[in-house]
Specification:
Elements (H helix, E strand, L loop, with lengths): L13 E4 L2 H9 L3 H6 L3 E4 L1 H13 L4 H9 L1 H36 L6 H46 L4 H5 L5
Antiparallel strand pairs: 1-2
Helix pairs in contact: 4-5
Length: 174
């Protein structure tokens, strides 16, 4: 009875270590890079990690209801309203910053091209690629025609030297 129970342990498919912010970022978003930036570390089968992430994201947990059991309905509702408002504000600030930074780098610093310039450049590259492909096809046709012509000339020149090597060896009259 004092013996340890003989239990087999197997290695975990994936090991995830993270602080709370990184773990919440991993479980609450498809963007794993954000969680890694916050300190998430994963080892093992990444497909299993992805399945766990998808499973948790598909859960429909009413966090407000769970909080209301501890704090009451009014406080829970106020907390979640504050959280949602903060999230919307954060999103608006990020969009504004992204627009402003892009505008600054394009218009003020002239470090980034405008979207129409990128589109024009990409179209020019595509046109050039098509032109090079057509040129390559023309060169191949010219080379094939030249090889045929050289072969024909080679055959014709061997015919004009005497087509019957046996007759030409003993051409001296007896």
């Amino acid at each position: 009875m004092g013996e340890k129970e003989n239990t087999q342990y197997r290695e975990a498919d994936v090991l995830v270590s993270a602080n709370l912010a990184a773990l919440l970022a991993f479980l609450g978003s498809k963007e794993v890079k954000q969680a890694i930036d916050r300190g998430l570390k994963m080892e093992g089968d990444m497909e299993t990690a992805s399945e766990i992430q998808n499973f948790v994201m598909d859960l429909d947990i009413d966090w407000e209801e769970m909080l209301s059991r501890c704090t009451g309905d009014v406080i829970a509702q106020q907390c979640f309203n504050f959280f949602k408002k903060t999230q919307r504000k954060k999103q608006a600030i990020m969009e504004s910053f992204s627009f402003s930074a892009g505008n600054f780098l394009q218009e003020e610093c002239r470090l980034l091209p405008a979207a129409i310039e990128v589109e024009t450049f990409n179209q020019a590259v595509d046109d050039l690629r098509d032109e090079v492909d057509r040129m390559e096809a023309r060169i191949q046709i010219i080379l094939q025609n030249r090889m045929r012509s050289d072969l024909i000339n080679s055959i014709n020149s061997s015919d004009s030297m005497g087509s019957d090597p046996i007759c030409s060896m003993g051409s001296d009259p007896i």
